[in-house]
Amino acid sequence: DWCPTGFKVGVNYKSNTVTPDSDMAKSGRSVCMLYNNTALLEAWSRIDHKFDLMYGKRAFVHWFVGEGMEEAEFSEAREDMATLEKDYEELGKDTNDNDAGDNEY
Q1: Cα separation of 29 and 11, whole Å?
Q2: Which residues contact 13 (CB under 8 A, 6 or more apart)?
Q3: What is the number of other CB atoms lying within 10 angstroms of the CB of residue 31?
Q4: Chain centroid to CA 69: how far?
Q5: Measured between alpha carbons, how far is 69 from 90 in angstroms, rounded to an integer?
Q6: Is 61 left (phi over 0), alpha (psi -120 to 50) or beta?
Q7: Which of 20-34, 65-79, 90-104 has the highest mean pLDDT?
Q8: How many CA atoms lie within 13 A of 88 on its CB side?
Q9: Terminal CA-CA length for the chain
């Protein structure tokens, strides 16, 4: 769906899973917000880093392979994420360059 405001909020009415000794409280619903701006670069970077750490140890790969996914798809997905991260980085640089030019007289 196209979203003219640049963000979208979704409410899930299925209760969340709480692990023992967790700081999270039991809740009847949860909320997810997606937005699109260059601040996402930091989030993508963190996700990419965590993926690299887990994939380096082949954590959970056997589950996905057991469900029919090929291991090469993980590499393709990582390349796609790197491209996305690079696109946001370039967009952020372009935005900063344009903002710097606005302040000059």
Answers
A1: 7
A2: 28, 29
A3: 9
A4: 21
A5: 32
A6: alpha
A7: 65-79
A8: 15
A9: 41
Tokens of 77: 């997905």
pLDDT of the residue at 93 = 82
Alpha helix ranges (H) inside the chain: 40-56, 61-66, 72-102
Measured distance CA(20)–CA(1) in Å, rounded: 37
Q: What is the pLDDT of residues 24-74, one digit of tens each?
A: 888 888 888 777 777 778 888 888 999 999 999 999 999 999 999 999 999
Percentage of the residues of the chain whose pLDDT score is greater than 90: 34
Tokens 């690079």 belong to 86
